[in-house]
Amino acid sequence: MSRHGDISSSDDTVGVCVFQYPMPRLHTMEEVMKNADKICDIVKGTKIGLPGMDLIVFPEYSTMGIMYDRQEMFDTACKIPGPLTDKF
Known about the structure:
By secondary structure, this protein is mostly helical. The chain contains three helices and two strands; from the N terminus they run βαβαα. It has helices spanning 29-49, 70-75, 83-87; strands spanning 16-18, 55-57.
């Protein structure tokens, strides 16, 4: 049984959290990895505060940011699986 303010899942419900995360402007793989660490910290904090949360959603450009430079896009592309996806 949940208390006031708790989010808990059951057989017929799913607890969902949707974050409004600012779209970062990242230029290097180091910046992408630091940003991924920040997102992971947010997820950990959310699970501590709301342990019944089943799904945490971030906007589409949250991890890599948006890049307009073609070479930056190739330089920061990640392998799946790889170091970046292993964080998640």
